Amino acid sequence: MESSTGILGGTFDPIHFGHLRLAEEMAAAIGLDRVRFIPAGQPPHRATPRTSSTHRLEMVRRAVAGNPRFVVDAREVQRPQPSYTVDTLTELRAELGGEQPLWLLLGSDAFLGLPSWHDWQRLFELANIAVAARPGGELGQTDAMAPPLQREVLKRKVADASAAGPAGSLLLRQMTPLEISATAIRHTLERHGSARYLLPDAVLDYIHEHQLYEHTK
Ligand code: ATP
User: What are the tens digits of pLDDT across the range 184-214?
Assistant: First the structure.
């Protein structure tokens, strides 16, 4: 059978256990052979990240080290201009061929914001999308979704990854709820509080080593 790849994009400012569990649980549920973590360079939807892409990339490297299924993909931070997910997926599709199932992994907050993404409907031509319910981002009822997104859900939803082909399907799944966010971690660290057990020790050590997220910086 064709191998399948998951793609987890994010600011990763910093990467934390919410991201890693999302990747781990989706990898198990879908049967992904690998998950590519793709830190965003200049995210088009949001404020400039607090931390340089070099540091964010290195934190992701440290977080995934030791898991042979998890790999870091630096293409977005290496691009000089803002990167759209649709461009990244187009590139990956060209590299991996048309047959391999690609799964874009999203938390529910990211999914609900999808209609504001550049050329978002074309994402479904390039990949499947798997959405993990995130605390506060309900997926049970479609009421919270913009009508164009509701239509995509009705058209594309599958109960199981085995019903999906290389692209075009949508899987909505519960994951272990972990109410961890990079924003809350940054705030804790700014106040010199403890962020231990919210993210891998190797990442926290790196943060302290480089004095990231300190108010005085
Ligand atoms: P911030 O607090 O700065 O907005 P974040 O913690 O949401 O950051 P991102 O880098 O924006 O992290 O998230 C990348 C992806 O990971 C998104 O699809 C997001 O929904 C998902 N994600 C982030 N945190 C969690 C979590 N705790 N549980 C499940 N999914 C998550």
Answer: 999 999 999 999 999 999 999 999 999 999 8
> Where along the chain do its domains lie?
5-178
Q: CA 105, CA 114: separation in Å to the nearest integer?
A: 12
C-alpha 47/C-alpha 43 separation (Å) is: 7
Fold of 5-178: Rossmann fold (3.40.50)
The model's pLDDT over 164-173, given as tens digits with 9 standing for 90+, comes to: 999 999 999 9
Is the CB of 134 within 6 Å of ligand 1? Answer: yes
188 C-beta closer than 6 A to ligand 1: no
Whole-structure pTM value: 0.94
Name the CA radius of gyration of the chain, rounded: 17
CA of 1 to the centre of ligand 1 (A): 31
